[in-house]
Amino acid sequence: MQKGLFAKARFRTAGDRGLLVEYGDVIDPAVNNKVRSMAIVIEGNPLKGVTEVIPTYRSLLMIYDPVMTDTVELQKSLETLEAHLADIQIPPPRTVEIPVCYGGEFGPDIDTVAAAHQLSVSEVIDLHCKPEYLIYMVGFTPGFPFLGGLSEKLHTPRLETPRTLVPEGSVGIANNQTGIYPIASPGGWQLIGRTPVKLFAPRRKNPFLYQAGDRIKFNSISVAEYARLVEKEAE
């Protein structure tokens, strides 16, 4: 059994309409893969009375209608699905490429990140672009991806005083995580760049470009390329 992955799911009540199902006690790809797999299985086998399924780093939150079901019935159904999980083919994750213009007005904190680790700005960019990041969960704001896999050389604390407004598309670092702000919002992450890509578009057929379990690959672009892609997004 993978360290941190529970041999058996743990169930906890969450108010009068929620059931929290925990699959591990650490932030780890194996635990998150179990969460993702169960979320996909539930999507293909809707459970009576369940109105929403919310995946997190290591658990699923089931929101249900107490008139139609209860935690006892939900637990039985989930245990049955989990028992047959090995028989169900889970689609492979997608890799979504995100262009980013690093530094300057788009990444006002990149010099701080570089200085904190005795790196050059170009080294910060190279290190940030190298991995394919696992999307552990999506939340905080619509489409905000919490990404795992950031190089230890870039782990940097959040800002002591959060900004009241972070521009849409900003790419940031907070401790051992990196992520993207799909919409303008307050935030305390160290901003190192910005993407011109519209990550959340309510009127688009698929409002989101990715989901939990997918991977993100960042690509460095120039200011000129950023401007060109902004124009393309506006078409």
* Residue runs with pLDDT of under 50 for 5 or more positions: none
For the record, the CATH class of the largest domain is: Mainly Beta
> Cα-atom Rg, whole angstroms?
20 Å
Query: Tell me about the biggest sheet?
Result: 7 strands, mixed, barrel
SS element count, helices: 5
The helix/strand series, from N terminus to C terminus, equals EEHEEHEHHEEEEEEEEH
Which of globular, elongated, flat, extended, rod-shaped describes the shape?
A: elongated
Q: Give the distance, in angstroms, between the N- and C-terminal Cα atoms.
A: 51 Å
How much of the residues is beta strand, in percent? 25-35%
Count of distinct structural domains: 2
**CATH-level-4 superfamily name of the largest domain:** Cyclophilin-like
The CATH architecture of the largest domain can be named as Beta Barrel
Strand numbers in spatial order across the main sheet: 5-12-9-10-7-6-13
Task: Look at the structure and give the mean pLDDT.
Answer: 92
- The CATH topology of the largest domain is Cyclophilin
Q: Please bin the fraction of helical residues.
A: 10-25%
